[in-house]
Amino acid sequence: MLWDIDGTLVDAAGLGRDAFVDAFEKVAGAEPEHFVPFAGRTDPEIALDLLAAAGIEDGEQLLADFERALADAMASRADLVRERGRALPGVRDALARVRGEPGVTQSLLTGNIEPNAHLKLGVFGLDELLDMEIGAYGSDHRRRGELVAVARRKALDLRGIAFQPEEIVLIGDTPLDVAAAIEGGARAVGVATGPYGEDDLLHAGADAVLPDLADVDSVLGAVLG
Description:
7 strands; alpha/beta; 2 domains; Rossmann fold; DNA polymerase, domain 1; five-stranded parallel beta sheet
């Protein structure tokens, strides 16, 4: 079982976007004048598009520096994330309940680079409920559609577990989460706690959609099929 982070498990109070502004300024020497879509996309995709929108042609060469700057910018906001952000309703109970289900392994599939994923969950004590080592992060691959395969490889290499695609469930709040699940051969469960409604997620092809994660029995029913 693979969980998205932003809009699904936590609300980071817009501080992730602020970190992007700082990282861009550090790499490019000025604040971005034009923004690009963020929701459901990987951090490297966003970074490259921000650089391209600013007319910077060597974005690929700057990407490693951008990711390091992004991790530093987010780390400097850890206290603010804890103060202003929140775990979304029902998340802690849902993660704890799923963790207790026999034969179920839960981790992440997120567009966040790995350090920022750890930070956003760690400040709310959610990281201890997931197997973070086998998670698939934006820093593993810039295309979200490749991340189901990344998580499968990590589970095999690090845990000796050979998950078949149809055994995997991806839970996320955007149509791009749903698309990533479909591309990876996994089931998709949408949760309408981000910028998209239940109809949007159903039309994107989600196998099930929840209004939120507050009803733990409904969450289990959706994710365990």
